[in-house]
Amino acid sequence: MSSNMTPFVKPRFVAEKVLAREHDKGDGAIVRRTIGRPELKFLDLFLILDEVTVSAPAGFPDHPHIGFETATYMLEGAITHEDFVGHDKGAIKAGDLQWMTVGRGIVHSEMPAGPGSQHGFQLWVNLSSKDKMIEPKYQELQGKDIPKVEKDGVKVTVIAGEALGIKSPVYTRTPTMYLDFRLEAESVLHQPIPESWNAFVYVLEGEASFGAPNSPPVGAHHALVLSSGDGVSVWNNNVDNKPCRFLVIGGQPLNEPVVQHGPFVMNTTQEIVQTIEDYRLGRNGFERGNVWRSQIAQV
Ligand code: FJE
Ligand code: FE
Q1: Residue 247 maps to a domain
Q2: φ/ψ of residue 154, rounded to 5
Q3: Does residue 113 lie within any of the structural domains?
Q4: Sites in the chain below the pLDDT cut of 70
Q5: Please, what's the b/e burial string for 266-298 (b: 16 or more CB within 10 A of its CB; e: otherwise)?
Q6: Disulfide check for 161: which of 124, 177, 205, 280 has CB 3.0–4.6 Å away?
Q7: Assigned domain for 111 exists
């Protein structure tokens, strides 16, 4: 039976709740943004969390990035990826993960790989000032290579970090956890999270009580910023008897200034001005990026 006790010295509670309003770009892309929207601009280390549903001809055609990492995790359908140095490992399919360390610069295109709708998440993880200008790097994992474990009605896919005794092979520059949980009805989760980290939950489907067993159940498309503490407990003890699927994302804050200009994220305005100039002139990491055109985004 579900226990109402938590094993934590200082359990985390829900400090803030934000609903991802559907932002329909009108061309077949629906973006639900939580981290990165005006009322939740930045949760140190995390710049953006988008839940996207996209169908052709919409997509994310040729655009640059600098200074952070993107984690693209697909639920349904697939996204093809092509970048300006010819890095092409095929599609990111349902269950797959692409962890892209942008570093000093990437220009790329992310487009639907087939008909119908493609559904997934993209998380932007900031890089510390010492890592902002590193060489770009990809970590690409197929669904079968992402550790999964199930115990007492709790199923977890460990995208980054560790849960229920298993570790992800993904290397993160700053300690980060990214967990995809599914709790059957009547099951309980106690997930440790280092006390100094920022952490949040994003509910995908179903409902559960987060932080306290009798807290009002929270449903799909809500992000919950967690208070500080050494772990979070979740109870799926709702009347509907349905499973609840949610993400738990956390990381060690950088405590550095952030200056963001769209997909450019640096520490100072001077660095942003420099980046805009580098991209325009195709230098300092953007060699040929200014004249490159992807094949996948041409129609
Ligand atoms: C972006 C231009 C872009 N959310 N979710 C400017 F194209 C993008 C962008 C995305 C994105 C891509 C995928 Cl596959 C999933 C996304 C934004 O690529 F973020 C900005 N600022
Ligand atoms: Fe991108």
Answers
A1: yes
A2: -115, 120
A3: yes
A4: 1-3, 26, 299
A5: bbeeebbeebeebbeebeebbeebeebebebbe
A6: 177
A7: yes
Q: Which amino acid is at 120?
A: G
Is the shortest distance between the CB of 25 and ligand 1 below 6 Å? no
- Which CATH number goes with the domain that contains 136? 2.60.120.10
Q: How far apart are CA 62 and CA 84, in angstroms?
A: 9
Whether 14 and 224 have beta carbons less than 8 Å apart is answered as yes
Number of structural domains in the chain: 1
CA of 74 from ligand 2 middle (Å) equals: 14
Q: Report how far ligand 1's centroid is from the alpha carbon of 67 (Å).
A: 15
Q: How far is the CA of 60 from the centre of ligand 1 (A)?
A: 6
Domain-located, residue 151: yes
Rounded Cα distance between 163 and 151, Å, is 11
Domain range for 109 is: 14-251
Q: How many CB atoms are closer than 10 A to CB 133?
A: 16
pLDDT score recorded for residue 1: 43
Position in ligand 1 atom list of the atom nearest CA 263: 21
- Compute the distance from residue 123 Cα to the ligand 1 centre, in Å: 10
Is pTM beyond 0.70? Reply is yes
Per-residue model confidence (pLDDT) at position 238 = 78
Distance CA 289, CA 279 (A): 7
Residue located nearest, by CA, to atom 19 of ligand 1: 263
